[in-house]
Amino acid sequence: MWSGPPQPDQGLPPPLAAVPVPWKSTDPCQGHRESPGALVETAAGEEAQGQEGPTAAQLDVLRLRSSSMEIREKGSEFLKEELHRAQKELKLKDEECERLSKVREQLEQELEELTASLFEEAHKMVREANMKQAASEKQLREARGKIDMLQAEVTALKTLVITSTPASPNRELHPQLLSPTKAGPRKGHSRHKSTSSTLCPAVCPAAGHTLTPDREGKEVDTILFAEFQAWRESPTLDKTCPFLERVYREDVGPCLDFTMQELSALVRAAVEDNTLTIEPVASQTLPAVKVAEVDCSSTNTCALSGLTRTCRHRIRLGDSKSHYYISPSSRARITAVCNFFTYIRYIQQGLVRQDAEPMFWEIMRLRKEMSLAKLGFFPQEA
């Protein structure tokens, strides 16, 4: 069905003139017949159509080309805008990356500085802590030395008080109580200096006094003095050094070698550790009328020698609550060794400020007391 000619605004050529078409027979028995006029009109119409066809096709091609050019131009402009926009974004991202890189470098630098300052502060704190610890340890050593000295003085005072009481005064400590024949020279005569050596061995070293030697010849043994000087350069309580090794072998060991070997070893260890306590038997706490009636078998047998002796003192090892009763001879042997260790501890702690020779002779005197105590010589108690 034909809908009519195209509108002029669509750009198409004007419509061709209507060409009348003759009726054609469709009968197969009749041939194809057309009139001469129809043929002429048909040829003229075809000729006119052939002349107008190329012009319309050219217009269509030109129109298509112009449209394609416009599309290309618009596409090119769009791509340029997109490229420009992408470049701007890349530039902004580069700037952001550069800024973040600078921030990272700054943070890394600050972190390194902070780490260095923390390490420096930590080293400073450790150094101060070490210095404080060293000062505290030094103060502790000094305090322990003072405590040892005070304990020795207290022990000496106890011994002095115990050995001289109103009920039984020590006549050696109080010459005025001696008989006229034993009191020594009267006014105008000098007292014999050897009487001071009869005092308790624990009194003089603890008080820091040097006993006046008896009138006897003395000569320094060069070997012993050399060993003492070597030890005095760096005082120590290590028994492996030549000086103390000799004293242990010749004096300390034999002096503390009792019959009861097991208890002897414990006593020796307590003396070396300065944890041995000698206490008097508290018999004075009982009424005076009943003192003679007190008969305790444990106070009549020495725990170290095993001999039956009147035990006026007892020992306690460390913090133990057990006590062992000892005889006067055993007490003298233990006291002699304790006096020696107390003196060398004073030397080690720097409390004895004397020349080498007086210190050497004091040590020889203490060794002499250990030897005498080992042989059974000890001051008699009143």
UniProtKB/TrEMBL annotation:
Region: Disordered, residue numbers? 1-60, 166-198
Residue stretches making up the GDP/GTP exchange factor Sec2 N-terminal domain = 75-158
Transport is among the record's keywords? yes
Cite the InterPro entries for this sequence.
RAB3IL/RAB3IP/Sec2, Sec2_N
Where does this protein have compositionally biased stretches of type Basic residues?
Answer: 184-194
Q: A biological process (GO) annotation for this entry? A: protein transport
Family named by the database record: Belongs to the SEC2 family.
Protein name (database record): RAB3A interacting protein like 1
The gene designation is RAB3IL1
